[in-house]
Specification:
Two copies of one chain form a homodimer. By secondary structure, chain A is α/β, with parallel strands linked by helices. Chain A folds into two domains: 135 residues, Aspartate Aminotransferase, domain 1 (Alpha-Beta Complex), CATH 3.90.1150.10; 229 residues, Type I PLP-dependent aspartate aminotransferase-like (Major domain) (Aspartate Aminotransferase, domain 2), CATH 3.40.640. In chain A, 42% of the residues lie in helices and 13% in strands. Chain A has 14 helices and twelve strands. Chain A has a seven-stranded mixed beta sheet with strand order 2-8-7-6-5-3-4, sandwiched between helices. Chain A has a three-stranded antiparallel beta sheet with strand order 9-12-11. Chain A has a two-stranded parallel ribbon with strand order 1-10. The interface between A and B is large, with 91 and 91 residues.
Chain lengths: 394, 394
């Protein structure tokens, strides 16, 4: 009666969303102070004041017919110009408005790009574990498939031997998510260079481009002096997918972009295919008011103080208790190895004490859990004794 | 190198969008007063003042982390409750929040519903001409196909003999768009009853439900005393797709819903499949701020004065000149038969005089053009001499 794949995806929520909904119900019953909800990557730092001002100013001073009207499908001129100029100033590349397709967030960008790169049902996409679980359905949306390269669990860079084994004539793209959800790892320039060199060699071997799809919603969320390599500078056939969700604390507003630079072979063809996928999926345009807000706020930097404090607190406390986790350089996740049993057991044990952490299996690392520390610091403080109890009871 | 279908859809804009982009460029060159742009269904009446107030109040008084955060995938509680209550009050049915899946507009709803109802690549959807051209790619997104039933060009109701011939064992749904884009026709209760009875009989014959997918963004845009039958009251297996784009003049903001009532057989299964399709297409949630705005504005009625004036002016003037068109009872389109040659010729002749009207071929009626009269009345007035010249030169 209905599409099996759709029903499967709709009747089984993602484990992240499942835990988030459980958390909402628990908070309704037990109160906010009783539950430590680390399930969802929903920023706890409010959107910058400039964002609120931009909203107000546009709503008060611009004509509503223009503000709320359809924009061109790839986005209104203002936002494309503002982002192109921001990226050109920031990176060593000439990025133009026509390289940018404004999307309803990074998820819309990734699914549209993967569909655009799916030639037939042999098409394969590669994710390096740990990876964002929704990549699987985005890879399958147009009939392709996802292949997962096991994680390098020491520092969550790339195990290149494993990656090389995974590449074949059907490989269309490698998904890169750095800073990484869920590990917080940032790929080093060294890692990106090796990846570029491997993919250049494999593209030559198979006589076809193998793309990098760089999913970068956490680009600006890095700590200390870490810098995030801009992959198109290292590898021409890179398509960047971005979202303002995390940087500007606007995850619900659904605005981001797919960037197809002129360095992508036949970039206009790839761009048009992305546009066509978005059209097929019913993305008429990205929401119009927020497009105008972003046009004014594209250069604002995030306030990372709470996240950095939480990261330092959790990392120091958990490692001192005896937990293993790689120190995250970016994003707002800590990826922690279960002290006994697998990540599901760890998540269940914590859930019983109203601490909500996501099992690592859907991310491709079943022995781990993800702690989304984009929460008030007091939530981290409240959770620490529970983490202590769990590791001591093993 | 890229997906052929996506590339095709992305490199060839829809004819509506094509003309709209041309119009923007012409206005930039020749000035607003030189071009009569009837291409796009972009409401010219501003959003009601209550909408602006709701935006301001939410932005000023509610915490930004909540306002701009992710909502549950099917929508925030407030909007689902408000719409369920509004529909329950308006229609003779018990509609509950859990029947509503909030979407990024009607396009997202239709594409998610059609994908949900696509069982395999034999699945067929039927549109009755004239129909919204994007239905074709929405029907094909999950591997199904679109079959078009020729228009009844006298009054743009349904030619039931033709419809019956089109239905077979693979028919999954009939798309209904009333008030209709592009004809402005509203299906009468009589039409809806005959449709319900035909589909009930065919469902019984084939031992499977044949759904109605009712795409209703123009529900409240009707003139005079015309009423729009609420199809779920007549036929249980109806899924309604709705958008606030036209009623509240918010087309760019992308907010609407799919309604799967309890009268749909195995409604929860259908609902879950819709949710799964939306998830696969990367619709994380509908934009969050506008969800909260709609929660407060669900019952506001549109201001139809300008549209009604335009309809009356254009219909009276064009028929007096000798044009044929059915008098539209709803929406904001006039569907006019080309006085000589086909709709393309008519559109081209008008375009030469900077009057932009969309050829009817993509709507399934090649002899017609669509005039979107959601414009300032003076645009209609300026265009009338051009329409006079064209019909007199034939």
């Amino acid at each position: 009666m209905v599409n099996k794949k759709s029903y499967g995806l709709g009747s089984q929520r993602s484990s992240i969303r499942e835990l988030f909904e459980y958390g909402r119900q628990r908070i309704a019953v037990a109160g906010y102070d009783s539950v430590c909800d680390f399930s969802l990557g929903n920023p706890s730092t409010p959107a910058p004041e400039q964002v609120r001002k931009a909203f107000s100013d546009i709503l008060e001073n611009e004509p509503p017919v223009a503000v709320h009207g359809y924009t061109s499908a790839p986005g209104c001129d203002e936002i494309r110009r503002a982002i192109a100029s921001s990226l050109t100033n920031k990176f060593n590349m000439d990025i133009r408005p026509e390289n940018l397709y404004i999307t309803c967030g990074a998820a819309a960008a990734v699914t549209s790009v993967l569909a655009a790169l799916t030639i037939d049902n042999q098409s394969e996409f590669i994710a390096v574990a740990p990876f964002f679980p929704e990549y699987r359905c985005f890879a399958e949306v147009a009939g392709g498939s996802l292949k997962v390269v096991p994680a390098d669990e020491t520092d969550f860079q790339i195990d290149f031997d494993e990656l090389e084994k995974a590449i074949n004539i059907n490989t269309q793209a490698v998904l890169v998510n750095s800073p990484n959800n869920p590990s917080g790892a940032v790929y080093s320039a060294e890692t990106v260079k090796r990846l570029a060199s491997l993919l250049a060699a494999k593209s030559a071997e198979y006589g076809k481009p193998i793309y990098i799809v760089a999913d970068e919603p956490y680009r600006e969320l890095v700590y200390g002096k870490v810098s995030v390599p801009f992959i198109p500078e290292y590898y021409g056939n890179t398509i960047v997918c971005y979202s303002y969700s995390k940087k500007l604390s606007l995850p619900g507003e659904r605005v981001g972009y797919a960037l197809v630079t002129n360095k992508v072979e036949e970039w206009k063809k790839v761009f048009d295919a992305v546009a066509g996928s978005a059209r097929m999926f019913g993305y008429v345009c990205a929401p119009s008011l927020i497009q105008r807000v972003i046009a004014r706020c594209a250069d604002i930097q995030p306030d990372l103080r709470v996240y950095e404090r939480n990261r330092n607190l959790l990392y120091a406390s958990l490692t001192e208790m005896g937990y293993f986790c790689a120190k995250p350089d970016g994003a707002f996740y800590l990826f922690v190895k279960s002290p006994a049993g697998n990540g599901n057991d760890f998540s269940e044990a914590a859930k019983k004490k109203d601490v909500l952490i996501v099992p690592g299996a859907p991310f491709g690392c079943p022995d781990f859990v993800r702690i989304a520390y984009c929460v008030d610091t007091e939530v981290c403080e409240r959770a620490l004794p529970v983490f202590g109890e769990i590791i001591n009871s093993k």
